[in-house]
Design a protein that fits this description.
It is a multi-pass membrane protein. It is found in: Cell membrane. The protein has about 300 residues and is α+β, with helices and mostly antiparallel strands. The protein folds into 2 domains: about 1-50 and about 170-305, no CATH class; about 55-140, Alpha-Beta Plaits (2-Layer Sandwich), CATH 3.30.70.3040. The protein has helices spanning about 1-15, 20-55, 65-70, 80-95, 105-115, 145-150, 165-205, 210-215, 220-255, 260-265, 275-300, and strands at about 60, 95-105, 135-140, 155-160. It has a 4-stranded antiparallel β-sheet with strand order 2-3-1-4. α2 runs antiparallel to α11 (about 275-300) and α7 runs parallel beside α11.
Length: about 300
């Protein structure tokens, strides 16, 4: 009987505040969708870092004849065969080095023509202008500075480049987007909480006569508050479900269908469905608990029991 009464009160409250309840559902759904999206974005950055950092190399560019004329680092002339072999030998002796590949000037020229054959500068570049280099695969990409310290300033070495630096710009941009999503999520969360508190306040005021009677007949505070808390929890749960649907549809639209980024960007290792599904329970739990706690706190002020 008591359960039936609580359920009937929930239905009454939802009908009386239908518009505000709808606003709560929408705001909760948007804030939780942004929250889930931020978590997935962080997971995507982590996945991409693991994927790409395993493939990046440290490039040691060697001096050529042109560098000897224009670059102070190569003031002693182009790299000699002895210097080249010494660099290769020292790289092989380093425990952090997994693999070393030497790219000659002719190979560099061939790769350049393949990649930039449509540009005007490709027609005037000659093989002797290209730099030969060592492409070094490290066991731990974070140990780049060990290689840079060991070979920077050495005779025959023009520059050392860590390919991670190129990727860091992309990762920093994605982190920035993640921070922006969290900021908007926080704003939407505040709006949702304000709507929940206001909805509970209006609902409690409209049913002050009923709650007064319940208090007179000896009903407990928890029993009187329960319908209001359940209303907020129900609206929050609906908002959480909508947010879950938005995350699932968003992942499908961006990666598999619609934009089909997985086909357009085959070199990017995108997060799978398992990562999305793992976030959904957390979204639902927050969607259920957040409005319930907000309603409970609001009732202590607006419902005198």
């Amino acid at each position: 009987m008591r359960a039936q009464f609580v359920l009937s009160e929930i239905g009454v409250g939802l009908r009386r505040n239908l518009t505000m309840t709808f606003a709560v559902i929408v705001s909760v759904a948007l804030s939780l969708a942004l929250f889930g999206g931020a978590l997935l974005m962080r997971e995507q950055v982590s996945t991409m870092k693991d994927f790409w950092y395993d493939k990046v190399n440290v490039s040691i560019y060697l001096c050529n004849k042109n560098d000897a004329e224009t670059d102070e680092k190569c003031s002693k002339g182009a790299v000699t065969a002895e210097q080249r072999e010494q660099i290769k030998s020292d790289l092989a002796d380093m425990s952090i080095v997994e693999k070393v590949h030497h790219e000659s000037a002719d190979e560099a020229y061939k790769h350049y023509r393949e990649q930039y054959s449509d540009t005007a500068i490709a027609t005037v570049i000659t093989p002797d202008q290209m730099q030969e280099s060592f492409r070094v695969k490290l066991k731990d990409p974070e140990k780049y500075k060990v290689v840079a310290t060991a070979f920077a300033g050495r005779d025959g070495v023009q520059s050392i480049q860590d390919q991670r630096g190129i990727l860091e710009n992309l990762f920093n941009m994605m982190r920035g987007m993640n921070v922006a999503a969290l900021f908007v999520m926080g704003l939407m969360l505040v709006i949702a909480l304000m709507l929940i508190v206001n909805t509970v306040r209006v609902s409690a005021f409209s049913r002050r006569r009923e709650t007064g009677i319940m208090r007179l007949v000896g009903a407990s505070s928890f029993y009187i508050q329960m319908p209001f808390i359940m209303e907020a929890a129900f609206a929050g749960l609906l908002g959480g479900l909508v947010a879950c649907v938005m995350l699932l549809v968003g992942r499908y639209f961006l990666i598999d269908g619609g934009l089909a980024l997985s086909e357009k960007m085959p070199l990017v290792n995108f997060i799978g469905w398992d990562a999305v599904i793992a976030v959904l329970p957390l979204v639902l739990v927050i969607g259920l608990l957040m409005p319930s706690m907000a309603a409970f706190i609001a009732l202590r002020k607006y419902l005198k029991v």
